[in-house]
Every structure is written in C-alpha cells, then in structure tokens.
Specification:
By secondary structure, the chain is α+β, with helices and mostly antiparallel strands. 38% of the residues lie in helices and 24% in strands. The protein folds into 2 domains: 65 residues; 101 residues, Beta Barrel (OB fold (Dihydrolipoamide Acetyltransferase, E2P)), CATH 2.40.50.
C-alpha cells in the first residue's frame, strides 16, 4: 500500500476518530484515579464515629456521605416502598419516608426493612442514621417496628473506569484495522 493511495478525507476522519477514542481512553484512566480517591474518602467517612449536622443543600451533601447524622422529621409527606436488602442480606422492601424538617427543608429517611411491601405507620420524630447517596438518611436504629436495612457501603459504588478505558483503546485499534483492511481491498484490482 502506497501513501498516495490513501483516500484523503476517509483517512482524516478515521485518524480523528482514533485520536478521539484514545483521548477518551486516557480520560477514563484519569477518572479511575479520581474515583479511587473519592472511594477512599468515603471509606474513611464510613469509619468516622462523630455525628455531623444533616446537610441542607447538595453542595454540602458530598462531604457528608457515609457519615452518621440525624434530623427531626417534623412532618411526613409520604411513605413509599422500594426493593431493598436487610442488614442480614435478605431481599425484601425498604420503606422510605419523605419528611419536612423544622426549618422547612425536605429530607428522606429509609425507615427500615421488611418482607411486607405495605407501608408502615410512621408519623415523624427524631431520626439518626447514616447519610447515603442521594441524601437519604438510613435509619440506625430502624423505625416503625422495621428491621435494619443494609448499611450504605462505598464498596457498592461501581468503579468501571479501567474497563471503559480498555474499551476505548480496543475501539481505536479496531477502527485502524478495519481502515487498513478497507484501503488494502480498495487498492487491489
């Protein structure tokens, strides 16, 4: 294959695509390091014993994840049941209450676990527990006569960035191989 036989436009497009895929692969490797650092922070927070104030906004939520906290559920605006796991690893229902705190801000508390999907009776009160992703407070001890839910664990957060980087590098190699094969085939009479 001679250099002058290469189609100019197709070569530019393929090389731009390959460069983009390689850049995305390296970006995923950078994200891998960022995610590992964040998971280390979460693991340290999970082991902290001091209780912190419940975060009132999204900006302060990130630094509060996996820490112990509490709030006063002044008013319950709704209770819903979603699939969940107990502290013993059994599948069933996690019961969550939407609350209004005394200062008017919303809060969500995962009350506890049961095998029954029916919403438990809960009218509010003081709640303590662990702050989980999304800002919900996983009650510890559980409330409304429920069993304990599985404790939020940073190890449950997926960290697939190495696999994503590998995919982008594989896509780049595949694009180059297909391009070379197509140019070779085109050059044959």
């Amino acid at each position: 294959m001679k250099f002058r036989q290469l189609p100019v436009f197709a070569t530019i497009v393929v090389l731009a695509a390959v460069a983009t895929m390689i850049a995305l692969g390296f970006w995923q490797l950078g994200r891998l390091q960022e995610k590992e650092a964040q998971l280390a922070i979460y693991s340290a927070a999970q082991n902290a014993t001091s209780e912190i104030a419940y975060p009132r906004d999204k900006a302060s939520l990130e630094s509060a994840l996996y820490r112990r906290s509490g709030f006063q559920c002044a008013q319950v605006t709704g209770i819903r049941s979603v699939s969940g796991s107990s502290a013993k690893g059994r599948s069933g229902w996690a019961h969550k209450a939407e609350c209004i705190l005394p200062d008017g801000t919303p809060g969500e508390v995962a009350l506890g676990w049961s095998r029954d999907p029916a919403a438990p009776e809960y009218t509010g009160g003081m709640v303590t527990g662990v702050i989980a992703p999304g800002g919900r407070l996983v009650a510890d001890p559980p409330l409304a006569g429920l069993e304990p839910l599985a404790r939020p664990d940073p190890a449950d957060i997926p960290n697939n960035h190495l696999a994503y980087a590998g995919q982008w590098f594989f896509f780049a190699i595949t694009a180059l191989v297909i391009f070379v094969l197509a140019v070779r085939r085109r050059g044959k009479p």
